Amino acid sequence: MDSRDKSIDQSTSEATDPNASLGTIDQELETVSSPTTPAKVESSASLLEDPQIAKILQSDSAMDILLDRLKRSITTCDEFSRYIKKKSILEDDHYTQLRKISKHTQDTLKNDGKKFKSDSFERSFEKIVTFDSELFNVGSPYVKALTLMYEQLGSLASTVSKSRKSVKEEYRRKERECGDAIAAAEKSKNKYFNFCNELEKLRTGDPSKKTFTLKGSKTGTQQEEELSRKIEIADQDYRAKVHQCKKLKDELLMVHRPAHVKALKGLILEIDTAMSLQLQKYSTWNETLVMRSGILISPLHEDSNKPSIKKIAASVDNEKDLYEFLTKQGTTSLNRWLTPVEYKVHPLLGNNLRKDSQRRNITPTSAAVTGAAVGASIGAASSSPLSPLPASTSYSPTLDPKVVGSRLSGPRELQVSETASTVSVPPGVKQNLATFGVPIDVLVDNDTGSVPAIVRQCIQVIERYGLDLEGIYRVSASVTKVKELRELIDRDPANIALIGPSSPDHVLDDDIYVAATILKLFFKSLPEPLLTNVLYQDFLDAVKDDSGSTKISTRLHQIAYELPDGPYWTLRSLLFHLNKVAAHQDVNRMTIRSLSIVWGEVLLYTEVANTEDMSYKAKVVEELLKAANLIYEAEP
Fold it and tell me: Is the entire prediction scored with pTM above 0.85?
């Protein structure tokens, strides 16, 4: 009992002083009133002195009632302890992950500064992210307090359970002793009455009748004397055992039962009181945690050195940010690549052109106009007064034929507008966007779907013709065919339709291998891997961590959700496609493990090969394939 009393005293002291477990409250928190002390419930001890309760506790069922009640309290304590333990683990993981992602984001903003805006938004965002790191310092004492609490509750339940078992066994032993004494007295009583009945029959029978036994015959008188002696002995034994059973029953009712009832009653109040105090501690810690978090986010005495998170977010000035960017990065230099070439006549032909011009001046007006049109079509300067070439045609800052045509005058307007429509795009300007080596988000923005067209086409071809093809994605296609097809697609994205067999009735294995190789080549040629450089290490850490606190599938789900839209939906299509391929592994001999080994280096490639990470890359793809239906909504 001393250890339990010590445990209760410890719980009481901690409940009245929550700062002992949570640490010193911030200086600003000291200006606020301390967390509200739980209101004390008016004592109801007098209710247990009620005569009806006393009568129940003195009854034969008192022990069974109290044993059942104590068992319920122990079960409640165990459940309370399990809840606190689970919450402790959850909060610990929450604050640890919060600090981890905060540090990762800060490092990314610091190390890859050239990729981000470097303006007031980024500065405000970085400051706000640091609040998550500081919240770890607020939540860490709370987690430690919860850990201590569930350990104390577990110890309390174990100690009280042992005490209950000891009291129960001792009382049951006393009950058995009393019961055995009563049974012995009952047996002695039956023996005594049997002898008396035999004596009565002997006296009412024939006195001269003899009884024959192994030791000889006995007369009635001899038999009566023998029975009298037995009755006397049985009577003494009967009296003694009756006295003993009454004595034990009196001891059970007057000594043992009250003592055991008192012990059980004390254990019940002890464990219930301890749980009540722990519940008060739990509420106090929660209140303190919320207050500390609130003051961290929004200080009571706000100043420039420690602004609130709301003020930090409101300090973003987008217009000023754009102004500063343009003044630092902007330039007014001329893009020479867009400057049109001016027509210059070679000196060798200059005299001949002038002679031709003079002859055209003598011809009729209609001939002059026709000659001017021809001159305009070749862009030559003419000295004819009927068809002067405006100076504005020598250079135009725009390539729009309509604008160029609007600046011409005289009879040339019709000819310029007619010829402008046939002018080809200047050399160097691509009419169509390339496919290989272009970020997925860019391809998606120029497409109607959420997945690049080349990915959709390759998957469609393989699922239609190649699911049963042995070694799909492992067997390489013809290098020449792959190279030619890549060049055609980069020249015009419409050539994506060339992927696959030329006729559904004439499908060659090499056509399908080419489609599979093109798909892998597309992902390998991306500026960064599909799973992105930012999340590369997170994916590897997810499968390296074998602590078991969170399932690998859950961690991968959280990381995949952070992918940009383009890679996110492309990964979805690829995972469901590879699962379909693996479903035909009996025929194509490509299991999930085989596909993971092939695609690990494709989806998580690095410029510098790292042999240590190769197995983890394959593990990432393998776990993603297994968790595809968890990360994404299953395909119908």
Answer: no
